[in-house]
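Components:
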Amino acid sequence: MSTDPGDRLPGLVAEFLRRHDPAGDRLGFLRARFDAGLAWVHYPVGSGGLAAPRHLQPLVDDEFARVGAPDNRPRRNGIGLGMVAPTLLRHGTTAQRDRLLRPLWTGEDIWCQLFSEPDAGSDLAGLTTRAVRDGGDWVVNGQKVWTSLAHRARWGILLARTATDVGKHQGITCFVCDMTAPGVQVRPLRQLTGEAEFNEVFLTDVRLPDDLRLGGVGEGWRVARTTLMNERVAIGGAPAPREGGLIGLVARTWRDRPELRTAGRHDELVRLWVRAEAARLAALRLRQQLATGEPGPEGSAVKLAFAELAQRISGFEVELLGEAGLRHDDWTMRRPAETDLLTRTATHRYLRARGNSIEGGSSEILRNIIAERVLGLPVEPRSDR
Amino acid sequence: MTNLRYDDTEEALRANLRAMLATHSPWTAVLARVAGTEEPYDRDLWDRLTGELGLGALAVPAELGGAGAGFREVAVVLEELGRAVAPVPYLGSVLATRALLSCDDPDLLGQLATENRGIALAVPFSAAPGVPVHPVAVWDGSALYGTVTTVADALAADLLLVPATDGLYVAQARAPGVAVAPVVSLDATRPLCDIVFAHAPARRIAGPDATARALTDALTAGAALLASEQVGVAQWCLDTTVGYLRERRQFGRPVGSFQALKHRLADVWVEITEARAVARYAADCLATGDPDTELAAALAQAHCAAVAVHAAQECVQLHGGIGFTWEHPAHLYLKRAKSAALAFGSADRHRSTVARLVDLPAPTPSVSG
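Structure:
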């Protein structure tokens, strides 16, 4: 038998499909797939994987997709799959991984991220939510904001301050927050698009047992960095075919409606097309580089480029449409499960894209990260370290 | 699947070449050559690159005596040569090699590979792929007559590939009847020249159809591979500027700690990150004969040319006064970048090609009343 996992995997998938009916119970199928190590093949055995090379995952996904097997609809649990899972893998205890990873992967448990606070957005380490030890529990008080999916989430990954007499990056601890615990209150936060993708979360005397602490006391900043680097990769680095994103919508409009074409718009459209393709290739190259390693600050480049491009393309699209660009579809407050960019109007895309350069690290903060961590330029003098 | 990374062989080639260039072609030497009365090309360096590293034969198939490497490796070489603004006629020889590969002339290719003979394709440096190249000469039955302007890397060539009305000819560059005259070039590290053929002896190596194909292939390759050189130019500009801003102090602190400057350099870095992906894509398409090669080449010049120019302009600006002097090498990179932006057609022309290939039609001109 071959020891190359790339040779073994197709056989394992085929064997799995012989024993589990893709048309049967969806959840049962997904749980079995996790237990067989075919969820994330690069994760350790017992955590949904086979300790195989990371780049083999698409081979497995493609094979399940080919036979029409149920998937875990990753976009509905994007935070869990994209950011929390790698963080649990790296910083969680065996007991935490055993308890949390499978329902996360199957989508039974939706996750949210309780990082941002009203007074600590870009300056995340300035957070003031407190966690105080009380016997075997921690008691949490504070407020979080910009929390997508909090209204559906079973769990949240939470940063709280556990010490105030040390530097602001040292006094932070990471927890898994039970969103059903007494004292957790979630309120929708309506944004300028009219919908409420996000929430405010109020934490009042929330008791979390110590076994929900993720990483060491005071180690929260290190844990958070794993999450944040994965966030940028998740936001900017999704694999897309050519014209798979917003540029595809505009290109289709251009092809279908010759009456909208002008020379100036043509020039701008082609410029945007070229930039979109360059950004797509950069994301693809990043993924090829990441296939064996962890995300580095390069994810910041892809995220930054993606945000600016989305804003330029959506702005162009509204103008291209002329009179139709004056009409919006609906201002009713909605609670979308995922960012709904491709099925709404151009006006919605334009407005939603304003958030792209703010969420997940503002473009200004990302430029600082690139300048300091990639290029090694000196930090600006500051008084809060 | 398209491979946008550098493999181990390519990294090894890069390391060898970079070390050789650091020793034998530091920027001080390049600057001295540009400023002085020496000849424009560094013959010693070129001999080393072709002799010791076999660069001249990199893309020539192994069965003809070449290295049989391929265009991914050629792209890495260009990236390093761009990083050093090395005054060697490599790009021109790559163009000619690509043309000869299309013409299927094994004898000439074999000669190139084994004898390290310099060769250039006699077309204007600004000739773009996809646009028919006018024949630059006429064959009267016994010799070539005609003129071609702003040819890259022909000054160092022994042989010239000349597109004439009835096919492609190879002529001795130093034969009677061939006048190769240097022009004062924007980029002195890649000097251009005008060539006049007046009763020049030559040998026909391809008919009209094969010539058209060879020219298109050569110019497409040029556009695709120049992107890697542009990445190298841009990367040097960024690295050098970062190094300077880390050291230079004003207002009591390193200039590089000012956010306004950091953000500008971060933007350049993002642009280079994208340009590198685009350049690798073009090189990989070219190397594998991907059907996307024409698009990848157009994309490369529609994107990477401006990235190199921007990086070089920022390099001059962020160095402040010293960046505006002749003694600092920044201007060598600015001139290389701006001149390369016109090579193989402007970005605007390449955007037209992109538009055609991906079906984004220009508006139909309206009938004026």
